[in-house]
Amino acid sequence: xxxxxxxxxxxxxxxxxxxxxxxxxxxxxxxxxxxxxxxxxxxxxxxxxxxxxxxxxxxxxxxxxxxxxxxxxxxxxxxxxxxxxxxxxxxxxxxxxxxxxxxxxxxxxxxxxxxxxxxxxxxxxxxxxxxxxxxxxxxxxxxxxxxxxxxxxxxxxxxxxxxxxxxxxxxxxxxxxxxxxxxxxxxxxxxxxxxxxxxxxxxxxxxxxxxxxxxxxxxxxxxx
Amino acid sequence: xxxxxxxxxxxxxxxxxxxxxxxxxxxxxxxxxxxxxxxxxxxxxxxxxxxxxxxxxxxxxxxxxxxxxxxxxxxxxxxxxxxxxxxxxxxxxxxxxxxxxxxxxxxxxxxxxxxxxxxxxxxxxxxxxxxxxxxxxxxxxxxxxxxxxxxxxxxxxxxxxxxxxxxxxxxxxxxxxxxxxxxxxxxxxxxxxxxxxxxxxxxxxxxxxxxxxxxxxxxxxxxxxxxxxxxxxxxxxxxxxxxxxxxxxxxxxxxxx
Lengths: 224, 257
What we know:
CATH class of chain A: Mainly Alpha
Shape of chain B: globular
Strand content of chain B: 15-25%
Largest sheet of chain B: 6 strands, mixed
Number of helices of chain A: 8
Order of helices and strands of chain B: EEEHEEHEHHHEHEHEEHH
CATH architecture of chain A: Orthogonal Bundle
Mean pLDDT of chain A: 93
Distance between the termini of chain B: 55 Å
Number of strands of chain A: 0
Largest interface: A-B, 24 and 29 residues
Low-confidence stretches of chain B: none
Radius of gyration of chain B: 18 Å
Strand order of the largest sheet of chain B: 6-7-8-3-9-10
Largest sheet of chain A: none
Distance between the termini of chain A: 64 Å
Strand content of chain A: under 5%
CATH superfamily of chain A: MetI-like
Number of domains of chain B: 1
Structural class of chain A: mainly alpha
Oligomer: heterodimer
Low-confidence stretches of chain A: none
């Protein structure tokens, strides 16, 4: 029986990329969850908070949407030590991704919350719902359905911009691949394989999001 | 005072302004058990605001609301929630919850507000939907229902809360003419069962046949009140008669088109 053997280059490449893939997933999952959580909190404050709270959260969103992610990561990893705060490459990357993703997610959440018609609040209030019950049982379930497309899109962006983690020396998929590419000087093949890895990750995320959308689907919802 | 004489619901000298403009000016309305009063008058006269002030969806600036003789504390949220549970409200635009099917539109308030078990809430909801002729539409979402069906679900939803009074804010105004009849039939059925109602409407048949008293509102004040047999007599010169004549002419005009 002939055993398929890989050349040393592909052996090293797949070894490195699989290691990088694990790190990428370890970056993406908490960052996506944290980003959605921050987005929900920040979006809710921006939609319903007191004016001073709204100003603070709006400033946060403007800052993180208005500056490049690379700069944010550099500040977290190389800048904070000047203030005596040292972050590991992994922590700096996850915190940076969460804050950046959360700023974008807050826009989707805010838009979804503000798009709920006044009649939905009135209908609930007229039945004796408290403000909290109205939010929990009527507004949030509807807002989730309106925000899901935007939030899902942001998670897909996050999968791709997680490749910036290697800039702060967190060796994920792109970083591991780049090391091999430099070692063997075979950039085209390495980055083509990296692209396939990302394509697979994004395709899986899209499948999961489609599944969630299907579960949340309600006939005719959001079409009027 | 005999308990039957105490109004189920009493709004006293209710006033409300928006952006400095007086919308309601010291309006008083009382409803005894089983009584049906109909609010009529030109648009912008304050009918909707009065109804919303009565169940405190809009808080009055002045005046008081009493339920079975007990004044509602307008500054206490719990009192407001309790008032709204006992005073059902039907809106012109139905305001059904878009993410819930007909059955859950009814059960959600029973479960969340009245803390009734899911099974009991579903049983009650099915019963109410049967009552309004929608027993076979339990699984349909608002977007899958016609306007008339939506309004009937809204009525079933309000009734499931066992309200003492039902407020109806132009319940047929957003409906196509051919769908109005089914909602009117449900309202007539409620009247037959002795439901206490305060209704703003432009529907002549409801005004003339159901009202125990007509309240004509204009510029935030009730300017005329009385039984239809007195106010709607042709040529009596009342504002109500004139208003209803104009409504009839409009309705006839529509039919001729």
